[in-house]
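can u do me a favor
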């Protein structure tokens, strides 16, 4: 009986480790080059109905799960990669729009 209880707790800890290592649902800051840092707000995206898996898993797999693993550039986004896959002017504001810089970059 005691072994079952300990095993259950250990299993729950192992299964929850992924959640503990995940990026929090708040804001995450990235280097943004000469235009200033970029802040990704997970809450804004989740409020639009998106889930982490929409961008990090499955067919789209736009981003790696670990911060810093992707080499995100404006050139790549303008080609429809990374943020540019959705921020295309149809699903969300375009990364190419003249006023879009200040929406993401902060000096």
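np, heres the sequence
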């Amino acid at each position: 009986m005691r072994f079952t209880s300990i095993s259950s707790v250990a299993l729950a800890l192992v299964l929850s480790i992924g959640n503990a290592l995940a990026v929090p649902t708040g804001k995450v800051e990235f280097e943004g080059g000469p235009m200033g840092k970029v802040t990704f707000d997970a809450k804004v995206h989740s409020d639009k109905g998106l889930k982490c898996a929409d961008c990090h898993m499955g067919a789209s797999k736009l981003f790696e799960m670990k911060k810093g693993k992707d080499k995100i550039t404006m050139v790549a986004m303008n080609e429809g990669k990374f943020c540019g896959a959705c921020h295309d002017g149809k699903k969300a504001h375009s990364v190419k729009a003249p006023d879009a810089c200040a929406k993401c970059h902060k000096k």
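The chain has five helices and three strands. hope that helps!!
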